[in-house]
Design a protein that fits this description.
The chain has a single domain, classed as Rossmann fold, CATH 3.40.50. Helix content is 29%, strand content 18%. The longest helix is centred in the first third of the chain and has 18 residues. The two termini are 13 Å apart. The structure holds fructose -6-phosphate.
Length: 241
């Protein structure tokens, strides 16, 4: 895994945006995999800036988001659907019909997951996947567990993730306790992966990510088996490596 160490979140955003820009120059109809959460926000701000300056064109891009809470309504301001439109899609020229986000209201979540994998496959796979990492090493919502799933699937969120994310909901009870997520197979099939990480609270997860041991206790550690991963992080997140 390559690593780029930056001084702050803005630098992380700019460095990651350079990689997205290069990808879109190489292939204007790229299939991009997006993540939510606080880590990619500076990247999305940089992409919006580049798009405003006409240096980036999303008109031929197709997107697949990594995950979504379940159950959740799209119009809930904590849904990842809402997040993506609010933080990126409404501000760039991506076509609505080219945006794919797992449906947190699907009556048949297993069918929704299967159809999502089939669509990604049919479109030729994700060219560039953007990831963050959880304090417990999760990527997407693939939580530490005895076994990890390869395909897109429904997960029960761990206490650690509920604690970390419930701050965004009015009460912990309002936070969905399950989610739909791309599996590790889906993530690893992406041709190129970037991981954006900031803050000292992620330092332990980063240490585990870089210790070269692959284990289900840290789902992100599987990225060591991919041949094109760039981790972009700040000094605080890198303080234990
Ligand atoms: C979000 C996602 C999660 C986050 C992770 C880090 O789509 O897949 O794995 O990347 O929870 O979240 P932040 O960036 O909020 O620390």
């Amino acid at each position: 895994m390559k690593k780029i160490i930056c001084n702050n979140r803005e630098e992380i955003g700019k460095a990651a945006a350079e990689i997205v820009l290069a990808q879109m120059k190489r292939k204007p109809d790229s299939i991009l995999g997006f993540a939510t959460g606080s880590s990619p926000i500076p990247l999305y701000n940089s992409l919006i800036e580049l798009c405003k300056k006409s240096e980036l064109d999303f008109s031929r891009v197709t997107s697949f988001n990594l995950d979504e809470y379940y159950p959740i309504k799209r119009e809930n301001d904590q849904s990842y659907y809402y997040f993506m439109w609010d933080n990126l899609f409404s501000h760039v020229n991506i076509k609505r019909e080219n945006v794919n986000i797992l449906n947190g209201e699907a009556a048949d979540p297993a069918g929704e997951c299967r159809a999502y994998d089939e669509k990604i496959e049919k479109m030729g796979g994700i060219d560039l996947q953007i990831l963050g990492i959880g304090h417990n090493g999760h990527i997407g919502f693939n939580e530490p567990a005895e076994f990890l799933s390869a395909d897109t699937h429904m997960v029960t969120l761990t206490e650690s993730t509920i604690k970390a994310n419930s701050i965004y909901f009015k009460t912990e009870d309002e936070m969905p306790k399950s989610a739909l997520t791309l599996g590790l197979g889906g993530i690893m099939k992406a041709k190129k992966i970037i991981v954006v990480i900031n803050g000292s609270s992620k330092a332990q997860a980063v240490r585990r990510l870089f210790d070269r041991r692959v284990g289900t206790d840290c789902p992100g550690s599987i990225l060591n088996l991919h041949n094109d991963v760039t981790v972009i992080l700040d000094n605080e997140a890198a303080e234990l490596i």
